[in-house]
Amino acid sequence: MRLFDLNSPLMVALGKLADIIICNIMFCLFSLPVITIGASLTALYHCMQELIYDDERDEGMIIWEFWQAFRQNFKQATVLWLICLLMIAFLYAYYWVSHSLGGAYARIYQTTFYALVLVFLFGFIYIFPLQARYRNEVRYTLRNAWLLSVAALPWTVLSLALIILFVYVTVFMKPDAFQMAIYIWAVCGFGIVAYLTSFFFKQAFRKMSPEQLKPKSSIAEGAVFTDEEHMEEDLMVQESSYSDPNWNRRDDLFGPQTPEKKGKKRRRR
After folding, report:
1. Are 160 and 153 in contact (CB under 8 A)?
2. What is the pLDDT of residues 183-199, one digit of tens each?
3. pTM of the entire predicted model
4. Please, which residues have CB within 8 angstroms of residue 192's CB and are 6 or more apart in sequence?
5. Which of 147, 165, 182, 216 lies most in the core, judged by the most C-beta atoms within 10 Å?
6. CB neighbours of 6 closer than 8 A, spacing ≥ 6?
7. By C-alpha distance, which of 92, 42, 139, 11 is closest to 147?
8. Which residue blocks in the chain are alpha helix, DSSP H?
9. How big is the CA angle at 256 (ends 254 and 258), to the nearest 5 degrees?
10. Which residues, in sequence order, are bridge partners of residue 240?
């Protein structure tokens, strides 16, 4: 195989790098209003997961895929982001109060503050990857994010460690090169982090029981661990965006199904 053939490993890697850079720039541009960061993160993770999961995806469609994911997830991802902002505001207020106290109580509150930050980060890193890959209600996406962070604890720690390491190397290792750090993050930083962590999330998603992704009224609440019995096709109540390309345009997949009354036909949509 020639080095510069279109299907050679080098050209495939360069093509993925170009997609990562394009998605990173789009993420930065779409995040400028701040309130749209949630939808931008969801679109970024959607595209990075497609680079990993879909080997037969159409080349040159990454801009369209980003826009489609941004538009289709905008409402719910924005709600998730606003909830995260409220959590961050609470943590900031807790930090200010805990560091304004004195005596023995100050250490207790400061310790609990760092514990709360760690718990928040554990769940936060899963929220938008879950929103990008699965369709679910806001409350269940939030619940699944924190449950999954515990169920897949090794992958959670690896993902968080990778993010912290990348931030440290680019920002804190050489504080004098802050302008270079801004350039790196603006060009490819967010995309590279999302792409690498998506490998860990791919392994973590295997820990989720399918019926926990979209609960039904007949399914009791329980752990997110799964077994071979739960992998039966008839229990897959929430579909991945990669098992059905039109998953985001189907209205009949989710939500409690109400039984039809006799003598009445369901209206087609």
Report:
1. no
2. 999 999 999 999 999 99
3. 0.75
4. 20, 24, 166
5. 147
6. none
7. 139
8. 9-30, 37-53, 62-100, 104-133, 138-151, 153-167, 178-184, 190-204, 210-213
9. 125
10. 134
